[in-house]
Design brief:
Chains A, B: Its cofactor is Mg(2+); Mn(2+). Two copies of one chain form a homodimer. Chain A is globular, with a radius of gyration of 20 Å. The first copy, chain A, starts with a strand and ends with a helix. Helices cover 41% and strands 23% of the residues of chain A. In chain A, the strands form three sheets. In chain A, strands 2-1-3-12-11-4-5-10-8-9 form a ten-stranded mixed beta sheet, sandwiched between helices. A two-stranded antiparallel sheet of chain A has the order 6-7. A two-stranded parallel ribbon of chain A has the order 13-14. In chain A, strand 6 and strand 7 form a beta hairpin. Chain A has 365 residues and is of the alpha/beta class. Chain A has twelve helices and 14 strands. Chain A has two domains: 197 residues, Isopropylmalate Dehydrogenase; 153 residues, 3-Layer(aba) Sandwich (Isopropylmalate Dehydrogenase), CATH 3.40.718. In chain A, helix 6 crosses helix 7 and helix 10 runs antiparallel to helix 11. The relative contact order of chain A is 0.16. Chains A and B meet through strand 6, strand 7, helix 7, helix 8 and helix 9 of A and strand 6, strand 7, helix 7, helix 8 and helix 9 of B. The complex binds 3-isopropylmalic acid (2 copies).
């Protein structure tokens, strides 16, 4: 069997603790299932800055490019709040996304039944919620040029960012959304601000044409992004797959994640295009939550989002569908048993730390 | 007494019906209080396009510029979904904002106690909610150039929008936020994406400097806009005044409005800078809701947002503070009596149409 190469980037804050629990699952899969995972590890974010003066080193970038999949923890923290913009912790993540061409960010917003009451929404609005947000991840205002601050003199500066989308970028992300919809409820809602943005006009056109040309069996709806934000709060269950650009995706997926009451539990996958020859796609898996510096190192962080990200990795990078399903079921089982980390603690539940949670999931796996 | 000049732009959809109820309040104030309002009226949006081939005529633009205040209904509808981008209904509103230099958009997100149960959030999270969102309205990605679609050949197009902010633009909107905070709970939260956008870096710097130089008595917090969206859903009552840019303000104020359960009821004010000589500021008042073409012309639209927008007009354009307070109290009283339009109907309440709601409020005024 060929080796399955994983590159681990635990990052800052609670990233390393959460990654520790995934490492145990990997070791278990190698031992008990002969899964053949080979892991290497690097630095990203503030830690990389401290070690190399960059948010990720060239050496680690090479390893990320060569791996079958990257597992990413989290980056950032107050310690690096005033490092120069170019080497801030987030720059490492953004470079990984860009250089690996991970244009498709899959963010499931699901509500774990055991946690429905933790949502700030009324339980009946979120029970059973299962949305998949597909966010474009390598274009838009995140990477467009010019992106700069100009000194205009007289104490005046000008900050500029540029939102750019080309037809092919919209086409390929729309394709991912339609493909994913076919494996679900077969419905896609595309969100932009075509009433204000020219990139939104183009987005709307290209999604419409892609739908007509290749995916007319899928139900397609268009919504303005501001109205989309409202509808997510009003009636989230109306959505199946949402496809949107990098910046709207950032905002809308965070709102959707918060709705579920399961924020600390949500995974994400960032995928590239399938290679023409091998069919393999580059991929990075990361929790939706951040580095939570306030609780880092205390052993109380919730490792579930990181573990669920690894389940996505099993599914999308290695086609280990059954194993992915089982790992996700193990998470649900542990929750149903009332085992909880502090962030999702509920009355009558058993409060555990990071390691105990990881081990409880492994025991159910 | 000098005349108080109001320019009415009812617009499309339910705009004219809602404006009809404000017209009665104006007539009543002239008669009973000798308020001296002089009104003129124009076309905007789809109606203006049908009449003039533009989203607002030059003549009406002149009248808007000359008025003490503009009252704006709503624009848009399926009838105009495929008119050219330059003359789409929204272009009329955007031109008004830009040419009148209405840089400060005030969007209160309040939860009417009688409607707390209508929110999709748990009642205790929204009861008593009172946030003021201050959205920059004449800059950012809404107006920056280049804003275009380029044909690249080979079936490829490129959509471009440009986010631009200058120091003075951030300074003046921050100033409005700090001033408003002083009349409230004295707390401002500024939101941007400084971890990704250079305009966000500048925004953060200028807000910080403005605070230090002139408003250090006000409590200032910074939040990333995506985290801000999350926090609005998680714990909205943590906020007093939120200040943010044009696009984030569009998204965040819609989410905040939806949280209140009072979406159809929320007003907004868009203000310019005080004139150097007279101290007067140009202003436009409009409901946060849209033109709701599906219920237009049926006499069932909720006129409360439009009437509450007129209350803001009384307060900010004419310093008629007591009258503004009374009008707002009249709205609350009618709601407390269980009088409801269809959109806010509740069990045991009395369902009324647009005209009856308007008259009920006038009777309490
Ligand atoms: C950390 C930051 C650069 C990032 C983003 O804005 O994309 C994060 O918010 C996310 O959503 O993954
Ligand atoms: C109608 C549209 C152009 C407008 C905007 O995007 O500003 C609306 O959504 C608003 O919030 O006032």
């Amino acid at each position: 069997m060929t080796a399955r190469n994983l590159f681990l980037l635990p990052g800052d804050g609670i990233g390393p603790e959460a990654m520790g629990e995934v490492r145990k699952i990997i070791a278990y899969m190698n031992e008990a299932m002969n899964a053949g995972f080979v892991t290497d590890e690097g630095l990203v974010g503030g830690n990389a800055y401290d070690a190399h003066g960059a948010a990720i080193s060239e050496d680690d970038m090479k390893k990320a490019l060569a791996a079958d999949a990257v597992l990413f923890g989290a980056v950032g923290g107050p310690k690096w709040d005033s490092v120069p913009y170019e080497v801030r912790p987030e720059a490492g993540l953004l470079r990984l996304r860009k250089d690996l061409e991970l244009f498709a960010n899959l963010r499931p917003a699901i509500c774990y039944p055991a946690l429905a009451s933790a949502s700030s929404l009324k339980p009946d609005l979120v029970e059973g919620l299962d949305i998949l947000i597909i966010r474009e991840l390598t274009g838009g205002v995140y990477f467009g040029e010019p992106k700069e601050i100009i000194d205009l003199g007289n104490g005046q500066k000008r900050g500029i960012d540029t939102q750019v989308y080309d037809t092919y970028e919209i086409e390929r992300i729309a394709g991912v959304a339609f493909e994913m919809a076919r494996t679900r409820q077969n419905r896609v809602c595309s969100m932009e601000k075509r009433n204000v943005m020219k990139s939104g006009v183009l987005w709307n056109q290209v999604v419409t044409e892609t739908h007509k040309a290749k995916y007319s069996d899928v139900q397609l709806e268009h919504m303005l992004a501001d109205a989309g934000g409202m509808q997510l709060v009003r009636q989230p269950k109306q959505f199946d797959v949402i496809v949107t650009d990098n910046l709207f995706g950032d905002m809308l997926s965070d709102v959707a994640a918060m709705l579920t009451g399961s924020l600390g539990m949500l995974p994400s996958a960032s995928l590239g295009a399938p290679d023409g020859k091998t069919g393999k796609r580059k991929a990075l898996y990361e929790p939706v939550h951040g580095s939570a510096p306030d609780i880092a190192g205390k052993g109380i962080a919730n490792p579930i989002a990181m573990i669920a990200s690894f389940a996505m990795c099993l599914r999308y990078s290695f086609n280990l569908v059954k194993e992915a399903d089982n790992l996700e079921k193990a998470i649900a089982n542990v929750l149903n048993k009332g085992i909880r980390t502090a962030d999702i603690m509920a009355e009558g539940a058993k409060k555990v730390g990071t390691v105990e949670m990881g081990e409880a999931i492994l025991a159910e796996f």
